[in-house]
What we know:
By secondary structure, the chain is mostly helical. It has helices at 25-55, 62-91, 98-131, 136-139, 142-168, 185-191, 197-230, 235-263, 272-296, 299-309; strands at 2-3, 11-12, 15-18, 94-97, 177-178.
Amino acid sequence: MARVPGAANVTRVQEFILLGLSTRLGVRQALFLLFLSLYLLTLLENTLIVHLIRSHSELRKPMYFFLGNLSCLEMCYVSVTMPTLLAGLWAGPYHVPFPACMTQLFFFITLVGTECILLNSMAYDRYVAICRPLHYPLLMRPRVCLALALASWLGGLLVSIIKTACIASLSYCGPNVLNHFFCDVSPLLGLSCSHVELTELVDFVSAIVILWGSLLVALASYVAIGRAVLRMPSAAARHKAFSTCASHLAVVGIFYSATIFIYARPSRMKAMDLNKMLAVTYTVVTPMFNPIIYCLRNKEVQAAFRKTLRWP
């Protein structure tokens, strides 16, 4: 820690210590192998999805364009949080310099916000496909898809700049131990020695706007989709329409249930072990299962995969 100029008895934290998932050596070694395997599998799955979408013309549709963006986002997502998780499991409590901690926080918040808005864009795509099929080529033309994807990334970036600036401007006088495996919002607020009410308010308002706002828009889209599906004349048509939305609904449910529980609340969380387990869900488990839920069960993607491998 370094002394703050002009304040003889006040020190400022220069680094944070991440306790990680476990401090027990035997448990850490087993978890290291597990999470390293999950990390490599996640990168492989999402890289495969991006390659298939880019190399097969039959997958050059708006739905797959958004899936390709989601896969790129997931690879960035796990690459932001997984290095410190693995380092903590390999060597024990991990020391992170203050600038590196704020950098990790910045990219993490950016990716969370981007995923919220991107999932919203994907819900809109399904709404147009089912509720306004005749206008789909016009409403989801390439320029519109590109604008929606760009808005997702810019929206996440804007929210992250505001939140990270607020958190980085707080005073951290010690202790400097984070009971987490990466630099997250709630643990950092818990260590601040300055007034955090304004920062908590910014965190809460941004959670309302990004998390709850995007979730409500997605739910509104699916209410309209549900009404349209119920009006379809045949059971086969209803089943086909529902199957195109089931994957997105599953991912939305997993992602929002964990993130809203943690971030859509203004107070600092006390149950940090529960916080860590939920964080594992949306930083490790969800990026690994998204390609399976979204693409690997999709017949068009399966056909493209077989074509790539030259299977019959």
